[in-house]
Input
Amino acid sequence: MAIPVNIEDLINRRVVESTRIEFKSDYNPNAIIHSICAFANDIDNLGGGYIIIGVEEKDGSPVFPVKGIEHSRIDNILKDLVGYCHCIEPLYNPIVEPVLFHDVYVIVIWVSGGYGRPYKASKDVFGKDSPKSAKYYYIRKFSSTIIASPEEEKELFYISTDIPFDDRPNLAAEIDDLDIGLMRSHLKEIGSSLYDCSLKMDAPDLAKDLQLVSGPPERLKPLNVGILMFSEQPEKYFRYARIEVVDIPDPTGTNMTEKVFTGPIQRQLRDALAYIRNYTIKEVTIKEKNKAEAARVCNYPFAAIEEILSNAVYHRSYHINEPITVRITPENIEITSFPGFDRSISDESIANYSIRARIYRNRRIGDFLKELHLIEGRNTGFPNAIKALRENGSDLLTFDMDDNRTYLSVTIPVHSYFLDKSERTDKKAAYEKRITDALKNAPLTLTELAKAMNYQGITRKLTKTVEDMLERKIIEKIAGDGSTNKLKLKQR
Output
């Protein structure tokens, strides 16, 4: 059975986070079995991980050229692993494949989150009667495999009662609902070595290799992730699993257009983003006073839309019968999905744009989207969106949820240049008032002013507005501590 990931990308950690990869310079059964147990327990619901034997590690990174494993040893190692996996309770068998990489062989062990978790493993697999020797629950903490503490054991038992929705079998669907063409296209796109093998396989066997099915041989059922990503009609089982883009150029609804994107969710995402890029994004060149270079700005930075819509596809709940909606008006783009942020993210963190979730709703969907480079994962979506908005000189995002967090609406404001002149004037005046209000009590440095306005750093818009207000003598600079100037309201 082949590993359905591009090995070059895997070893160079391009599509899988470093915390989910463990390099082993040589075959060490104790350490390897403990790591298999830890990845299978998947305490953070990240999707398990990969153990690569034959690659040395230094400071968390692979050492090149790769050392590899002698070809003559591989057969014995594979046979050994089958036996040593019986030291894991309940029994867990990962997918193992020898791979030729840069002219040497490495052994890749793919460990997905197990259905039988929590798992425990023998501390010493060489011990007498090792399958029955002392066993411990192993988990991953950052990049290390450790024995779980009593508190972590309780957490492990708690999360083990809830298999993520996308990783559950869909009892209403059949294997025939999975499209072998879509599965092969995915493997070809990511450059997986499994692609060549897939040309000689039927849909059930290929689905097994991709871990898209579950159940006994006589009653295999596709997992929800398989129906959502490798079926031409996911809406047959998930009503409103689609993206609706509504363009409302006038508040009365005149000339409103609506476009609905269906099919596999990765195709929906790509098609919706292409549509928005082609029909919504506008760019202008602005000549600023006292500057030789002209500035190029967009009504909406596409990177911000891409991150937020991808985030919605990744984190939405697919058992809630509501679509993802993208509402485009002259003032903003609003992207709504269901439900809202996880409760592990506090209101304060949301207000400060410090959005870091520990629990992932759809870990398998996330893995597939990362392989396609449609998301990066590890809580980078909103920081990347905010960075794009700042670089474009746009206002930052706003979030809207009800008290129960049943939905999330993320609003991307249009760049002020693209507003009507009267609206632009009103918005500019309101923004300048925020600056003057912040300076009423005491002079502030530009960094302090940004913090007082609830920014994490100095934005391009803030810098430009302050320069304009200095020129119009609404505020002035005074000497501060050291060489840092402060800003204060100009006396009138």
